[in-house]
Amino acid sequence: MALVKSGWLWRQSSILRRWKRNWFVLYLDGSLVYYHDKTQRDMDGRIHIKYSCRDVRTGRECRDVQPPDGKSRDCLLTVVLRDGSKTTLCAESEDDAVAWKMAVLEAKSTPVRLHPPKRGASSRHGLRAGVGGAQPPPFCLAAPGVTHVIVREDPYRVSGDQMALGLLAGAATGAALGSFMWMPCWF
């Protein structure tokens, strides 16, 4: 997925209202993911900006929020979600807070369509081979000046639910076939 912005931000916890420093990564599909550290191994949380973000506020618009020690109110950034909750962040500088706001609003407004992989697609980039070379798929219509991101699901990705269901079906089939194999011995 296309990376829009990444960097360190302070995040205020929802229960105790303590500030914690997290590594944030914003993707163009609208996923704002935050990790324990820059290695991105331990995910602390995810916000789906495209679907759940209602508003983004910076600086003085962030009322009733005290910034972390040593930080200015101008460094604050609040993501207001559709369910009424808020995620309060604090950047290293006022310019960084404005940059994060612009990046979040860009990710929120960029159209993203999810299409399952089509059979016969010959390119790993989702382009089909046609007369005269590779052509974009017919559903990719973009107006001038508008960024469209087309995301294709990985056909080889298997979720835990699918894996468990496959193992269960395999075990049931094996048990059924195993019982049929012993049938000739009964006659």
UniProtKB/TrEMBL annotation:
<keyword id="KW-0472">Membrane</keyword>
<keyword id="KW-1133">Transmembrane helix</keyword>
<dbReference type="GO" id="GO:0045595">
    <property type="term" value="P:regulation of cell differentiation"/>
</dbReference>
<feature type="transmembrane region" description="Helical">
    <location>
        <begin position="164"/>
        <end position="183"/>
    </location>
</feature>
<protein>
    <submittedName>
        <fullName>Pleckstrin homology domain-containing family B member 1</fullName>
    </submittedName>
</protein>
<keyword id="KW-0812">Transmembrane</keyword>
<feature type="domain" description="PH">
    <location>
        <begin position="2"/>
        <end position="109"/>
    </location>
</feature>
<dbReference type="InterPro" id="IPR011993">
    <property type="entry name" value="PH-like_dom_sf"/>
</dbReference>
<dbReference type="InterPro" id="IPR001849">
    <property type="entry name" value="PH_domain"/>
</dbReference>
<dbReference type="InterPro" id="IPR039680">
    <property type="entry name" value="PLEKHB1/2"/>
</dbReference>
<dbReference type="GO" id="GO:0016020">
    <property type="term" value="C:membrane"/>
</dbReference>
<dbReference type="Pfam" id="PF00169">
    <property type="entry name" value="PH"/>
</dbReference>
